[in-house]
Every structure is written in C-alpha cells, then in structure tokens.
Specification:
Blueprint: H1 4-16, H2 19-26, H3 30-44, E1 49-50, E2 56-57, H4 59-87, E3 92-97, H5 104-113, E4 118-123, H6 126-134, E5 140-143, E6 152-167, E7 177-178, E8 187-191, H7 196-206, E9 213-218, H8 222-229, E10 235-238, E11 250-255, E12 261-269, H9 276-286
Parallel strand pairs: 3-4, 3-5, 7-11, 8-9
Antiparallel strand pairs: 1-2, 5-12, 6-10, 6-11, 6-12
Helix pairs in contact: 1-2, 1-3, 1-4, 4-6, 5-9
Length: about 300
C-alpha cells in the first residue's frame, strides 16, 4: 500500500531528479529514500525513472506525478477547509515569489486590512511554482516572467523595462541605449542562479552566442546597488527598482533589446479551491496600483551618504 509520506518524497525526487539533493532537502538518508522509490515502483508495477546516466523522470513517472500532485492538493485543501469551518476564521494565505521587494506595498496593505490572517511567504524559483500550486503547497505565486503549465490561471500585474545600471563616472553613463554586444566585456553584479534577473542576463547574452562576465552574485538584491557604486561592475535593474534611487550616484542605460523586459504575473490553481484568505490576497495584489507604489515600500537602492 502506497503511504502518504512515500508520495511526498516521490514528488521531491521527481522535481529534483537527483536522489542526493532530494535526500538532503527531505532530511532523510539516501539509501532510505532509494528504498522508498523502489518500493513505490514495485507496487505500481512500473519504473518511474530512467536510470541510464542521470536520474530522469520517465513518461510513467510524469503521469503518476501529475495524479499525486492533484491528490495531495485535494487532501491539503480538505484539511484547510475543515480548519476554517471549525475555527470560523479566514485562516492562512501562502504566497510564493522570486522576490518580495516588489510586493511589500500590497502585503503591507493586506496585513493592515486583515490583521488576523497569517501570511506565509515562500521564496521559490519560477520553475518550481507550477508543481507547488498543483500540490496546494502554496495558494498564489508571483513570477517575474510568465510560466506556462496546465492547471493554472494567471493575470499579468505589470510589464516594465529592465535597464543597465552604471556608476556616474562609467563610460556608458552618457549613453541613452546600449546593445548586448557592447556589454560583452563589462563585469556584471547580479543575483544568484535561478533568480529571474540572472536568467534574463544569461538569456540576453545566449541569444547572441555570448556569456556575461559575472564578477559577483548576491543573495540580497539591495546589495547590487552598493556594489555597483563601489565600482565592482554594472548590473541589470528593473524600472521598479528606480523608485527611491534619486540620491544614489547611479544612472540607467536602456538595453536595445525587446526581450529586456520584466513581466510580473500572479498565478493560482485553476480548480477554484482558493481559501477566503487567498482570494482576498489575490484581489489585493491584482487591484494594486503598481505605478503608485506604497510609502512603506522597501527599495533596492540605498540612500547616498552625505
């Protein structure tokens, strides 16, 4: 008989396609995880992974994964529905995003309007969000590029240009536009692998058979500005990040490429099982005035020291 814990472990292995990393994420021994997957395959009567070389989810595994995600999602939805019905409260809303700096305005407004609701924030790369939504691991996801997957609904929040940020004394500071080819030898300060900003930088260069010269990758995006000011390199910056940056000794140069744009999108499951708290969060985010921002919003850019 397939156990619930075994199904949950299978989904992690299916997502990572790597037993060692899956065992580390699950905090279990790799031999134990291998036995769980083997037992599951034995009960189903079919292998779920191709093991020639790197571990790969096969067609049977993908089919089973989709059913497991929906089944576990229904179980989680049932648990939360019972909890809300018995407590009489709005409950919890779980939001995943690649970055939360963009969302500080609507999150603060939501918390002021609904102080009793517990908000769970989960950082997640865009490629994991469809799985997390279908499995009801989160209620809503915000991505900086659209994701295309079955079983999801979405709405675009805003579309903005992404420019190159340089110090005022940089040779590009007087330019209005620059091509990707002209940036080939420039040192870049950017986000870690998996972040939308890093993926955009790599995609722009790869389209011209080039690779960016990355000299620094950071976890804290507010540090990008300080490192650019310090002269360590230049970096891509969304238009949203310019707010509150008037005191920083930096300037922005548009990239002459139509793909150098960020399209921020809100996603949720298409089955309509959002909790009341999640529906209120969806309304708050979709109705937010993204041009106006919020006085409590945290910016990417530090104020210039006197």
């Amino acid at each position: 008989m397939v156990e619930l814990n075994g199904l949950e472990q299978f989904l992690v292995v299916a997502r990572l396609e790597h037993l060692t990393r899956a065992a580390e994420e699950l905090h279990v021994a790799q031999p134990s995880l291998s036995r769980t997957i083997a037992r599951l395959e034995s009960e189903l009567g079919a292998p779920l992974f191709d093991r020639s070389g790197r571990l790969r989810l096969n067609d049977a595994g993908k089919l089973f994964r989709d059913h497991v995600e929906r089944s576990l999602g229904e179980l989680e939805a049932g648990r939360r529905a019972v909890d809300e019905a018995t407590s009489g409260e709005l409950g919890t809303v779980r939001l995943a995003s690649e970055t939360f700096l963009t969302l500080t305005g609507p999150l603060a407004a939501y918390k002021r309007a609904h102080p009793a609701v517990e908000i769970e924030l989960h950082w997640s790369p865009a490629e994991d969000m469809a799985v997390r939504l279908r499995a009801r691991d989160v209620d809503l996801c915000v991505t900086s590029q659209p994701i295309h997957a079955d079983g999801l609904e979405s709405t675009q929040l805003f579309d903005e240009a992404v420019a190159v940020c340089v110090p005022l004394d940089h040779p590009l500071a007087g330019r209005t536009t620059v091509s990707t080819a002209e940036l080939a030898d420039e040192p870049f300060v950017t986000a870690r692998k998996g972040h939308w900003l890093r993926r955009m930088l790599e995609r722009l260069f790869a389209a011209r058979d080039l690779a960016p010269k990355i000299v620094c990758e950071v976890d804290e995006h507010s540090a990008i500005a300080a490192l650019i000011v310090a002269g360590l390199g230049i970096g891509l910056v969304p238009a949203f990040g310019r707010r509150g940056a008037t005191q920083a000794p930096l300037t922005w140069v548009d990239v002459d490429d139509p793909d150098c744009r960020r399209r921020v999108t809100l996603h949720w499951g298409a089955d309509g099982h959002l909790t009341p708290a999640a529906r209120l969060m969806r309304t708050t985010i979709t109705n937010w005035d993204w041009n106006a921002g919020d006085p409590h919003e945290v910016h990417w850019w530090p104020a210039r020291r006197a």
